[in-house]
Amino acid sequence: MYYTDFTVEMTSTEMLDKALQNSTPKKYARLLLEGAEIIKQLRRERDEARKAAMRWTPMADRPPEENGKYLCVWQGKSIETGLFLNGHFRLYGENKDRLVSHWMPLPELPKETNEDE
Question: Left (φ > 0), alpha (ψ -120 to 50) or beta: where does 93 sit?
């Protein structure tokens, strides 16, 4: 990724190198602490967003905003995958809105791990 300053293009690494060359040890330490705090805040925000995404939403509160597949509570008895399309939940091609009490986005797929690394 490049940052453009009209005439000069630098990578983030080059920008950091330049900042560090012009820094005293105290400024350098402050830059590191500020960067660490920004990373911690971003991680907290990411974790909060993931938790919020994995909560059941009552249909009475609101339907999904986007078309797609969702986990749904059908007739208050079972959890199944439903297709939300054009403002309605569908199961086997039939409109099943009145049978859906809650929904949530599908979870992310697990990340593959390479045991050789």
Answer: left
pLDDT per position as a tens digit, 31-55? 778 888 888 888 888 888 777 767 8
Distance between CA atoms of 88 and 73, rounded to whole angstroms? Answer: 14
pTM score of the predicted model: 0.51
Q: Is 72 helix (H, G, I), strand (E, B) or coil?
A: strand
**Same-domain status, 48 and 9:** yes
- Residue whose pair of structure tokens reads 């999904």 in the numeric block: 64
Distance (Å, rounded) from C-alpha 31 to C-alpha 113?
33
Same domain, 10 and 33: yes
- Dist CA 11 CA 74 (whole Å): 51
| Residue 68 belongs to domain spanning | 57-105
